[in-house]
Amino acid sequence: MFLKHNNRPFLIAGPCSAETEEQVMETARELVKSNIDLFRAGVWKPRTRPGAFDGIGVEALSWLQSVKKETGLKTTTEVANALQVEQALEHAIDVLWIGARSAANPFSVQEIADALQGIDIPVMVKNPTNPDLELWVGAIERVQASGITQIAAVHRGFSTYGESIFRNEPYWEIPIELRRRMPDIPLFCDNSHICGNRVDLRSVAQYALDLNYDGLMMETHCDPDHALSDPQQQITPGAYAELIGSLIIKNETTDDVDFLKHLDEVRSQIDELDLEVLNLLAKRMKLSEEIGLHKKHNKVSVLQVARWNEILEKAKDMGRERGLSEGFISHYLSAVHQESIARQAKLEESGKG
Ligand code: PEP
Ligand code: MN
Q1: What is the number of other CB atoms lying within 10 angstroms of the CB of residue 101?
Q2: Which value, to the nearest 10 degrees, does the dihedral of the CA atoms of residues 176, 135, 183, 35 take?
């Protein structure tokens, strides 16, 4: 399959948007030196607010053809409807991608999938803007059902409200679960749209490679400060070459016998501990049911916010002393507390006690 190498990441780079023929050509000429696999450029740009630069449109597709002619690079662009699919195909674009906003809309994905019936072209499906794994899986399934066989998933992060160091929160557990459910679909990281800035690009790219991602999509522009879209996150082809060169590429496994032996030993200790934790959790739930009955008999409500706060704060302190992050403790205890409350509430409903 075109979208995957066995021993190195598949590299996609190019500007957020095709702005002028010179900008596209200059960026491409420089990127060839990094040995990229695919040149990206948005031609139709989905912009949050009206009035922003929304792409050159069909005219820019011929610039991508020039890129291919001059540099030999294969090209990709975003398509959001049937007409755009048709125009991209007419201009011999090599790979299409479905953007995050389209992926969130099954009508759009279905329209694109229908336009792809009977056509043999690789398609990349970005995650939907909202953190909904089923929508992402559904979009991939719609493309698969149209007969497309070469499909990759692109993780570009998820919209959230409020402060975050990321432009789009990565929620790494979602692409990890996608990988578990669809292990044959190559998974790429679009660290540019996750970060929304230049400084974190490298660490997010490395994190993705540490999670065994199959490739990276990164926005590169010959003059990023003056880019007409996403200037904050675009980097020059020179900075790109440096970043890619600094990444450490890992293998999913190795045949080294000593490594595998040690891995097995430590993993069996982990399995034992997991069992212990499960036994303790089961014991804890029994106790919380006992309390539930006690509350029921005394007509006391299931939830006491003060007690929940006390548990959480105490655990955060104890966690900190043990090197466990606050985020983790609060995730873990929230799950335990939810389960505990649900069980107690069930006792209220049932005739029990
Ligand atoms: C893009 O890649 O330029 C783009 C618009 O991405 P997304 O659909 O992830 O927002
Ligand atoms: Mn962009």
Answers
A1: 17
A2: -80
Closest by CA position to 252, among listed 262, 264, 260, 241: 260
Share of the chain above pLDDT 90, in %: 93
State the chain's mean pLDDT as an integer.
96
Is 351 a residue whose pLDDT tops 70? no
Q: How many A from CA of 99 to the centre of ligand 1?
A: 5
Domain spans of the chain, in order of start: 10-246, 257-349
Residue 353: what pLDDT? 58
In the structure encoding, which two tokens stand for residue 260, read together?
């595998």
For the CA of 230, the closest atom of ligand 1 is 3
Q: Quick one: which atom of ligand 1 is closest to the CA of 102?
A: 8
Helix locations, 213-325, DSSP H: 237-246, 257-297, 305-321
Q: State the Cα–Cα distance between residues 150 and 138, nearest whole angstrom.
A: 16
Q: Note the pTM of the prediction, 2 decimals.
A: 0.87
C-alpha separations of 12 from 84, 85, 120, 192, 193 in Å: 21, 20, 20, 11, 14
Dihedral of CA atoms 32, 37, 41, 42 in degrees, nearest 10, equals: -170
Beta bridge partners of 98: 125
Instruction: Domain 10-246: give its CATH code.
Output: 3.20.20.70
Q: Residue 76 CA: which ligand is closest?
A: 1
Count of positions (residues) in the chain: 353
**Cα angle value 81/82/88 (rounded, 5°):** 90
Band (pLDDT 50/70/90 cuts) for residue 148 is very high
CATH number 1.20.59.10 given to 257-349:
yes
Q: Each residue of 295-326: pLDDT tens digit? A: 999 999 898 899 999 999 999 999 999 999 99
Residue 251 is predicted with a pLDDT of 83
Instruction: List 217's β-bridge partners, or say none.
Output: 12
Q: Which residue's CA is minimally distant from atom 3 of ligand 1?
A: 16
Ligand 1 neighbour 40 (Cβ under 6 A): no
Candidate of 190, 194, 216, 233 to mutate for ligand 1, largest count of ligand atoms within 8 Å of Cβ: 190
